[in-house]
Specification:
6 helices, two-stranded antiparallel sheet, mainly alpha, 6% strand
């Protein structure tokens, strides 16, 4: 789903470029559609991916895709220097995503529990005992 969100982001970026500051109605409407699609797909993807990692990958796909397709659709150039820095972005996104796979989540490791949205290491020291929370003594 994150890849699809990235593809929609490329479509959005290219559409915004074609809209010339939202002065061309057809490109502007396409941009709005791609904007809504990319936000929806990204929000669905972020249900299962850490926000920081997901956003970085999404933005990287959008940036690289727009830079590679800009010369195809518009009067832009892709120089060797630009291509090098795009490769650096792609490498960074790949390494960032790979590093995310090796980090266990707190729930999977069993090292922490969550009490009303607050992380409590080891599940101890909750502050409010269960009886008091339920209204009992």
């Amino acid at each position: 789903m994150l890849l699809l969100a990235g593809v929609f982001e490329v479509g959005y970026a290219l559409s915004v470029g074609g809209s010339h500051g939202f002065s061309v109605l057809s490109w502007s409407l396409v941009a709005v559609v791609f904007f809504l699609l990319t936000l929806f797909a990204l929000s669905v993807a972020l249900r299962t991916i850490d926000m920081g990692i997901g956003y970085a990958v999404w933005a990287g796909i959008g940036a690289v895709g727009a830079a590679l397709l800009g010369p195809v659709f518009f009067d832009e150039t892709l120089t060797p220097t630009k291509a090098f820095w795009l490769a650096v972005i792609v490498s960074g996104v790949v390494w960032l995503k790979l590093s995310d796979r090796s980090t266990p989540s707190p729930d999977a490791a069993g090292s922490a529990t969550f009490d009303q949205g607050n992380e409590v290491p080891g599940g101890a020291g909750r502050g409010v005992d269960e009886g008091a929370r339920r209204g009992g003594a």
